[in-house]
Amino acid sequence: MVIVKAWNIQTASEFTLDEPNGQVLAMTVGNDTLLAGAEDGVISAWRGSSESKTPFELIVSLRGHIEAVVCLSVGRNMLYSRSMDHSIKVWDLDTLQCERTLNGHTEVVTSLICWEHYLLSSSFDCTIKVWGFTKEGTLEVTYTHREENGVLALCGMTDAKAKPILYCSCRDNSVRMYEFPSFSERGRLFSQKDVRSLQIGPDRVVLVFTGDETGLLTVWKWLEEPKVP
Question: Which residues contact 109 (CB under 8 A, 6 or more apart)?
Fold first, then answer.
């Protein structure tokens, strides 16, 4: 049986949430709700409860994907889920109902981030798609950026001068950096193997963490002024 565990960091108390069927591949928190995506395509949602035996109560199982859910992202009071079925689903965090399905990619969607007024998605189809929010609240592709190799992961942050920078991990052992939304290239980071994980540092700390297939974690920091060779 697959379980999800939760710990109280003040008391070290341990709790078990044993609802998912199959391996849990993605987790996130939004609107005071813990969400977990599993390999059976179901997203489980828990909220705090004073009436159940544990501090968390399963409130609903979100069903809609037909293959494994591999990424969850929260933004604009919406949950965005990507799946091995090539689709992206948009869920209302208040009602936990699926509002729409986005089918812009032709291969597996590898990464998904909600950043400012955009939703960005990447795929093994060698594209990064920028989805814009319309006045009606729908999402439309406003730009498609192509990479020669498939894209593994995305991450967005600002540099030392507060310019938005998109990090794009590709299947050639590199991470490309682009100014957003122009996609002007700012540089590249290189590793021995493909970088599978990208994460930004805490607020006001201009750090980027990369994890590659060798198991190496690397911490990168933006400089106020670039070094001159």
Answer: 70, 71, 82, 83, 86, 87, 88, 121, 122, 123
- DSSP class of 226: P
Mean predicted lDDT score pLDDT of the chain: 89
The three-state secondary structure class of 9 is: coil
> What strands lie across the sheet with 33-38, from one edge to the other?
24-30, 33-38, 43-48, 56-62
Chain-centroid distance of CA 12 in Å reads 28
For the four alpha carbons of 136, 108, 63 and 43, in that order, the dihedral sign comes to: negative
User: 183 CB contacts (<8 Å, ≥6 apart)?
Assistant: 143, 145, 166
Query: What is the share, in percent, of the chain residues with pLDDT greater than 90?
Result: 66
* Confidence (pTM): 0.87
DSSP states along 37-92 = EETTS-EEEEEE-SSSSSSEEEEEEE---SS-EEEEEEETTEEEEEETTS-EEEEE
- What CA–CA distance (Å, rounded) separates 229 from 215? 30
